[in-house]
Amino acid sequence: MKTVYVKLSQGNYPIHIxxxxxxxxxxxxxxxxxxxxxxxxxxxxxxxxSTLTNALDNQGINFETIVIPTGESYKxxxxxxxxxxxxxxxxxxxxxxxxxxxxxVIGDLAGFAxxxxxxxxxxxxxxxxxxxxxxxSVGGKTGVNHPYSKNMIGAxxxxxxxxxxxxxxxxxxxxxxxxxxxxxxxxxxxxxxSFLHWLETNMHRLWKHDSEALTEAIYRSCCYKxxxxxxxxxxxxxxxxxxxxxxxxxxxxxxxxxxxWLHGEAVGAGTVMxxxxxxxxxxxSSDDVKHVESLMHLARxxxxxxxxxxxxxxxxxxxxxxxxxxxxxxxLLKKLGKAEVVTWTERTMLENVIHHCSH
Amino acid sequence: MKTVYVKLSQGNYPIHIxxxxxxxxxxxxxxxxxxxxxxxxxxxxxxxxSTLTNALDNQGINFETIVIPTGESYKxxxxxxxxxxxxxxxxxxxxxxxxxxxxxVIGDLAGFAxxxxxxxxxxxxxxxxxxxxxxxSVGGKTGVNHPYSKNMIGAxxxxxxxxxxxxxxxxxxxxxxxxxxxxxxxxxxxxxxSFLHWLETNMHRLWKHDSEALTEAIYRSCCYKxxxxxxxxxxxxxxxxxxxxxxxxxxxxxxxxxxxWLHGEAVGAGTVMxxxxxxxxxxxSSDDVKHVESLMHLARxxxxxxxxxxxxxxxxxxxxxxxxxxxxxxxLLKKLGKAEVVTWTERTMLENVIHHCSH
Lengths: 359, 359
What we know:
alpha/beta; two-stranded antiparallel ribbon
């Protein structure tokens, strides 16, 4: 087992990473009282719920379970409201821990419910997808979508611990692996070109579900994410860089209907757009752009977005949380391995890039 | 103008108190960018909205306004959802400040919307009732009710400033003044018997809407509240004492239908119950209990709760946020001016007190 710590002013929390950890983790030591409420979805429940509940049973921990429907289209305030109703019916107390077992949607939804139920109860994230293990379960962001835009409603609610069992990736679909890889590649692009090299060398192992390679990719991603969170919990500075490709990507997800494009697929296409814009701004070379595209290709991600028309892209991008005084703020690449937040007001170049990168 | 500071690890914020402040406050210095979104209700809007918007206009601040229906029965997730929809339609940005103009319901509702919109935007509280000026607007508690119990869903979201203009109390109904006095009396009961004496001496001035006396009562209450918040923001220790009477009171509010009993009315009756229980536990004398009742009488508050039956009281009290391992935690009086958190498991005495104190 490897452990990474997220260091925050209000206390640190561990990210434990290891094959088989779902069954073997020491849950008891992470709880305030021996009671838990598990929130999961109807895809994950048949696969991994009994492994978790057996472990809790063996450790003398009481639990209840809430199972919700699977998918991004349920990541909304209505589902949160249903979870809250159930927490109240079950008389879940303030010191009972909510365990979010599932992918990014479960982590966001259940994490948000934990943030606002009784003004906040303890939370443990047990991510079961590559995307949530390598990125989404760490850092405390929780929330839901709104028809107008992604993740517009939410709260920062740090977990007490993150427990990552890469063995749960064995059942993951190819699309879900691809989606996770988009966020893994992100860490290399914004701050460590050597990690890009590692990914290129080891991508074939990841595709073979090689446990050691998966664990390494997740571990390194968690190190980047933990450091960014420790430096800038509220995301007013360096943590913003982790949003590369996301302003474009959120527009794609919203336009296509939540769940049609997986988050990582949209982020992959969005990151390619960010790379093209970085090149036109004169920061990176066309070879660098090709390098980014080839990485996305290796990850079997789309390198073009849907043809929505640049007007529609710009309109949706305008709803981004980072917008200030009506002006977009985008994450662009200074070089491979280094990114910057840029206030972007020029319109023609942006439209051209969107046009070029969508089909 | 008097100013009290709430001191927190993440920064301090001021509570400015002064007659006429609604028109005169320096809003510009409190905003991150010169734009604001005002949330108020249809009772307060015709009375005080134009005073505020004129002041913002004069200071070159752009604003939009959201007006919601008045009353505790609207303090729910549906209304929050409507506010969020409107914030999104208006494309309110992350650095725009939400100004909550109104009583405790507006502070809680709009404060909660500010807490979860884009994972949190700046908030200024401008309370316009005695209850919210003396208590609810300070300390960062925000949230909504659930059919099962009061304030079950919410977030801690500290304001950037609280602006209190006691002149807005001139239009307040007698019931609303009484309701506020319950929370004012609370501060004396739990930590300063000399303030109880001041209240007895000055109650007739408060009832005549004497501006100086009102300002003094609010100022002293804010000092107590600011200190409790600074000591224990998350309410795991001493701040819990401010909930005296609230476990009983919330049961009354929930049972009767939100808005039927005003919050302070229910807290007043609940505080009398807490006093009786404190006496039966052998901590205070029957003269002390009479003293508490006479204070509530001076404040024109009910000293008896509704006759719901003690079973119903206990059932509703069991939903309290302070319940731990199924056990009630109540705030009781050690003497007038000193309170303690007590884990309460004895049933008969509690039933007898509820029976005695309801009619």
